[in-house]
Design a protein that fits this description.
The chain is α/β, with parallel strands linked by helices. The protein is built from 14 helices and 13 strands.
Length: 386
């Protein structure tokens, strides 16, 4: 098989999509397939970072516009990738199948190009973008446009790879259940693991690592932390990443004692793991009540793989996952509930055997290589005669 992977973001740029797609590319490569990745030029600071790719994986990069945080996010940024993508897909060797990562604009371009070249494609439904857009305060006409484009991109696909049962159920509501295959999601267990260096701030700290968008509502953690400091003034809170709520988080942090909240930019997975291993607990959330409760933050997997308990605020599959496993505490998306959970973890000593047990459990349940193998099975099935 010759597989073409299309994504505006790819390894070594840190993101859940990068981890997921690299695993699929490597799994296909190790199974004897050739893989071409059409993606964007990485930021300058990452150009010497090893992408850790298999022997049959070729990555072709093109320049794109990035926002002020250095991320390919926003309508102009997406267009800077999508418009040249049409021509990149129409020239060169014809692939046997294409795997496309959202956003829906990219999916729509892939549908058009694949129709012209008569190539089947598979859409990686890692998210439902139009539902997420509805939580950002965007005008209804924009949300409607995104939803129409998303359905257009999905309906042309041979298969939809869903990362969770929640996403699969949402796709079924759109009449796309027959096309959907739940392959799950996971984390790279070589990058996120129990053994390794752990950060030490001299005081117990919590860490939120990843995107802080309107969907996540991560600002609740710094608001709850303000209450926690009243009885635990030695505690610290670390945010690693970027997102639409970054400024709102910083605004609350500036009200708090100096150095009690530390905000760091996106960093390599191995560096994130260092911060996770040293934390009293990690933090993850999905804002409740916006119609997006089916979302599942992959930062939960990263924390569990490092053996660090997670405090999850929200409902839906993330809440069920944490509540039904040994990964940590699942609480409502409410200030008092979050503050109480943070205080409990500060009052509880770190027990290494418990953390090893969490990491062992994660190794058995959230290995991204197993997810990638399932995805490759779906991709190759599209080439077999009916």
């Amino acid at each position: 098989m010759h597989l073409t992977v299309v994504s505006r973001i790819f390894a070594p740029e840190p993101s859940a999509a990068s981890f997921r797609l690299r695993a699929v590319a490597n799994s296909a490569s190790h199974s004897g397939h050739a893989v071409t990745v059409l993606t964007s030029m990485v930021p300058r600071r990452l150009r010497k970072v090893d992408s850790d790719l298999g022997p049959r994986v070729e990555v072709r990069r093109a320049p794109v516009l990035r926002d002020k945080a250095g991320y390919v996010r926003g309508y102009l940024q997406y267009m800077s990738f999508d418009i040249p993508l049409m021509f990149r897909l129409l020239v060169g060797r014809r692939p046997d199948v294409v795997l496309v990562e959202p956003p829906p604009t990219t999916g729509a371009i892939v549908r058009l190009a694949c129709a012209i070249r008569r190539v089947p494609y598979v859409y990686y439904a890692a998210d439902v973008w139009s539902d997420a857009a509805s939580m950002t305060g965007a005008p209804s006409w924009i949300v409607d446009a995104v939803r129409s484009m998303e359905k257009f991109a999905m309906r042309g696909a041979r298969r939809l790879l869903s990362v969770s049962t929640g996403v699969t159920e949402r796709l079924a509501e759109w009449g796309l259940g027959a096309q959907s295959v739940t392959v799950g999601n996971g984390i790279d267990l070589e990058q996120f693991c129990f053994d390794g260096e752990a950060a030490d701030l001299g005081e117990p700290y919590f860490v939120y690592a990843g995107t802080a968008s309107e969907v996540h509502g991560a600002v609740i953690f710094v608001q709850a932390f303000e209450r926690v400091l009243a009885t635990n003034p030695q505690a610290r809170l670390v945010f690693i990443g970027q997102g639409a709520e970054w400024d709102a988080i910083a605004e609350v942090a500036h009200r708090l004692p100096t150095d009690s909240v530390v905000m760091k930019p996106r960093m390599e997975p191995e560096q994130v793991a260092i911060w996770l291993r040293g934390a009293r607990a990690s933090l993850a959330s999905v804002r409740t009540g916006g119609g997006y409760d089916f979302a599942f933050p992959t930062k939960i997997y990263a924390s569990a793989a490092c053996g660090t308990p997670v405090i999850y605020a929200g409902t839906g599959p993330g809440h069920r996952f944490v509540h039904e496993s040994i990964a940590g505490d699942a609480v409502p998306y409410e200030l008092e509930a979050v503050a109480s959970a943070m205080a409990r973890h500060l009052e509880t000593d770190v027990v290494l055997d418990q953390r090893r047990a969490i990491a062992r459990w994660a190794a058995e349940n959230v290995d991204i290589d197993a997810v990638a193998a399932r995805a490759v099975d779906v991709l190759t099935s599209e080439l077999r005669p009916a």
